[in-house]
């Protein structure tokens, strides 16, 4: 049976955050929402300081606490291991956000047209041509389909106000046989994706012979993101900078 | 047997008569409610970004804020009313009889407002109601709120209030007034015959026996909404359920004391709430608030011994960080309330004024405690090293919550003008049976 997983090689990650940018472009998330987030840590006291990085996508847990607490089954785990949010069923209670120890859930606090990056004029004719008329960007039709055997619409398409969204492992790309956008973009190949139940998949081959660990294993969530190298984060680590939080 | 009646004079307890003071109260409540509705409309139009709520993690916010605090508080308050009413019936505590309906009304009103607060907190309120009916999952602790509390306790409390009031409704239904239709509707054919009265007594007894475990289980799920969250330091633990219940009992009794004191003052000549009633309430409140303080102290000790970890960070935020003033205020108010109660119990002199002061202190402490349960674990207790966050409600949240309080007050105020809030004494209005008997004797 297919079980999609991700490996993150921290020895390769250089903290460039290209994966974060790729995720934003692919999924048209609003400002301050980071479905993929890269921690940049500093440890020690100057000048004896050390930097480290930790990419944090949704862990697509086998024992997903977010799915367990959802009162209406809007958060669900697919047969192939991907944890998604049914955009039509989510009631916006945000219980999943509190149940998740990883902080990967983002609520749409306002209308999707607000909080979009205004670096370009989305109504510009050239932009419309380039994007195939998918204007405004938060109505990307590619994200708006029905996915999987379940044929459920995934939160991410439309970015509707008052519902929860999070990393989907780029389900719309995976179903076409493509890699998640962050994996596809990583310049150092620190991110590896595939079917971990397939012994010959890229992720299985990459993990073979390497020791790996999972984030907050003690929480019992059975995450499907495997970290190689580095070390699990602790409270002594300080983030170097804080992302934009204005909504 | 001749029976004195005041049938011709007026309905008892000022029912149907709109005094100036009552009109001012209702107008004030409507004004506050209107402002709350405006604030909610503003929030619905612009999104919850007009509140202080933000996602946890990278946004460093609290995704559950004042609305959820009020859900916990209001639903907690509902506990005491129904328990007092049940205890009075099951153990036949005659002294508590006069406040049985006030207690039931407090339960119904606080549940209505509390459940409304749940809906207000949803990002998709209409879909929330619909999908909870279509897709509700019993595995979610949240399920308890919207089924056990909304469907079970609320409906049972309504039935309790309805059945408990039928005898009075039957009495009033015979009195010509503008509200006669309402009283007939409430009586719904009940005539208070000996057989009916006996049947009613049995039903109310078993309802009283059954509703207490129901509300204990239902309200425990409120605590478990937090207690089952392994990923949120400060929440995970088996004590969340009992802790919720104990604080609910203290805050509910405190509100019942305040409401009873207001009713006592507003009823004037019709007042039947003597010192004995408040003495009983004071004793119950003493036990409940002592237990609540015990839980708070146990929690404090646990926090003090927390190792350098996420729990320690949470403890620091409570003991000396941004939430310290709320934490120490809640401890201080609870101790103050308890001291006032102990001093009265020790001297066996229960003053209503002092009891009200103690109740306000305890109720405020409980509200602060609810705030501390909900908020700091979100802003200061992440398992991953996110920056600490912050949360303080905006005017929109305060206005909506003020509107909820106003709605609760409005419900109680309107009820008092439609129905006697204290069960009618037998010597005030005869029961239909007694009337028949009196006529026969004449």
What can you tell me about this protein's structure?
- The complex is a heterodimer of chains A (247) and B (442).
- Chain A starts with a strand and ends in an 8-residue tail after the last strand.
- In chain A, the strands form five sheets. In chain A, strands 10-1-12-11 form a four-stranded mixed β-sheet. A three-stranded antiparallel β-sheet of chain A has the order 3-2-13, with no helix packed on it. Chain A has a two-stranded antiparallel sheet with strand order 4-5.
- In chain A, a hairpin with a 4-residue loop joins strand 7 and strand 8 (152-153).
- Chain A has seven helices and 13 strands.
- Chain A has one domain (4-239): Alpha-Beta Plaits.
- Chain A has helices at residues 18-27, 65-69, 95-99, 125-130, 171-174, 181-185, 202-207; strands spanning 4-9, 37-43, 50-56, 75-77, 83-85, 106-107, 146-147, 152-153, 164-165, 191-195, 212-214, 225-228, 238-239.
- Chain B is mainly α and 442 residues long.
- Chain B is built from 15 helices and no strands.
- Chain B has helices at 20-46, 66-90, 100-121, 125-135, 141-173, 180-187, 194-227, 240-267, 275-304, 310-319, 324-347, 352-374, 376-379, 395-418, 432-441.
- In chain B, helix 8 (240-267) runs antiparallel to helix 12.
- The longest helix of chain B has 34 residues, at 194-227.
- The model of chain B is unreliable at 1-9 (pLDDT under 50).
- Chains A and B meet through strand 2, helix 2, helix 3, strand 6 and strand 13 of A and helix 4 and helix 5 of B.
């Amino acid at each position: 049976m297919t079980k999609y997983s991700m490996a993150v090689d921290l020895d390769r990650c250089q903290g460039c955050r290209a994966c974060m940018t790729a995720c934003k472009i692919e999924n048209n998330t609003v400002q301050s929402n980071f479905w993929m987030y890269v921690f940049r840590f500093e440890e020690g006291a100057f000048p004896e300081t050390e930097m480290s990085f930790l990419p944090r996508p949704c862990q697509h847990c086998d024992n997903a606490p977010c799915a367990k607490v959802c009162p209406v089954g809007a958060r669900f785990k697919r047969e192939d291991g991907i944890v998604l949010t049914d955009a039509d069923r989510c009631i916006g209670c945000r219980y999943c956000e509190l149940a998740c120890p990883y902080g990967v859930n983002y609520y749409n606090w306002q209308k999707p047209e607000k909080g979009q990056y205004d670096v370009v004029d989305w109504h510009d004719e050239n932009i419309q041509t380039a994007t195939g008329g998918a204007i405004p960007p938060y109505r990307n039709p590619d994200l708006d389909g029905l996915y999987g055997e379940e044929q459920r619409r995934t939160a991410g398409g439309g970015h509707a106000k008052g519902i929860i969204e999070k990393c989907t492992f780029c389900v719309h790309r995976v179903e076409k046989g493509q890699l998640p956008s962050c994996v596809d973009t990583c310049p150092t190949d620190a991110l590896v994706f595939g079917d971990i139940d397939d012994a010959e998949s890229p992720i299985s081959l990459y993990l073979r012979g390497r020791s790996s660990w999972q984030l907050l294993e003690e929480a019992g969530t059975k995450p499907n993101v495997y970290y190689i190298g580095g070390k699990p984060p602790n409270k002594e680590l300080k983030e170097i900078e804080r992302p934009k939080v204005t909504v | 047997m001749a029976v004195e009646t005041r049938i011709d004079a007026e309905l008892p307890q000022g029912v149907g008569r709109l005094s100036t003071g009552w009109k001012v109260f209702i107008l004030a409540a409507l004004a506050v409610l209107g402002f709350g509705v405006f604030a909610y409309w503003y929030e619905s139009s612009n999104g919850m970004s007009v509140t202080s709520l933000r996602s946890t993690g990278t946004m460093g916010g609290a995704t559950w804020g004042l609305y959820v605090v009020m859900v916990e508080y209001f639903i907690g308050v509902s506990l005491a009313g129904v328990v007092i009413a049940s205890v009075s019936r099951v153990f036949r505590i005659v002294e508590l009889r006069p406040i049985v309906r006030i207690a039931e009304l407090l339960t119904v009103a606080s549940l209505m407002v509390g459940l409304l607060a749940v809906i207000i907190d949803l990002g998709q309120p209409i879909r929330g109601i619909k999908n909870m009916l279509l897709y509700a999952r019993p595995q979610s602790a949240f399920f308890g709120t919207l089924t056990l509390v909304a469907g079970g306790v609320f409906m049972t409390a309504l039935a309790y209030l309805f059945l408990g009031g039928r005898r009075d409704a039957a009495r009033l239904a015979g009195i010509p007034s503008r509200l006669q239709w309402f009283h007939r509707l409430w009586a719904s054919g009940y005539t208070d015959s000996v057989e009916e009265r006996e049947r009613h007594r049995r039903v109310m007894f078993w309802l009283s026996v059954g509703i207490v475990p129901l509300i204990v289980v239902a309200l425990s799920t409120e605590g478990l909404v937090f207690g089952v969250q392994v990923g949120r330091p400060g929440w995970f633990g088996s004590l969340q359920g009992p802790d919720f219940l104990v604080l609910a009992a203290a805050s509910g009794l405190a509100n019942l004391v305040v409401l009873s004191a207001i009713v006592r003052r507003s009823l004037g000549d019709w007042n039947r709430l003597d010192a004995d009633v408040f003495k009983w309430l004071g004793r119950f409140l003493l036990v409940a608030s002592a237990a609540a303080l015990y839980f708070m102290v146990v929690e404090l000790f646990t926090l003090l011994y927390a190792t350098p970890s996420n729990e320690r960070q949470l403890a620091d935020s409570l003991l000396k960080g941004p939430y310290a003033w709320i934490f120490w205020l809640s401890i201080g108010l609870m101790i103050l309330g308890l001291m006032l109660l102990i001093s009265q119990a020790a001297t066996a002199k229960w003053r209503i004024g002092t009891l009200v002061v103690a109740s306000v202190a305890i109720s405020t402490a409980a509200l602060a405690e609810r705030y501390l349960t909900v908020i700091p674990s979100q802003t200061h207790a992440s398992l991953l090293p996110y920056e600490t966050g912050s949360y303080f409600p905006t005017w929109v949240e305060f206005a909506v919550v003020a509107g909820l309080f106003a709605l609760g007050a409005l419900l109680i105020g309107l009820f008092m003008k439609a129905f006697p809030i204290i069960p009618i004494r037998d010597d005030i209005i005869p029961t239909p049976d007694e009337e028949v008997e009196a006529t026969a004797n004449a």
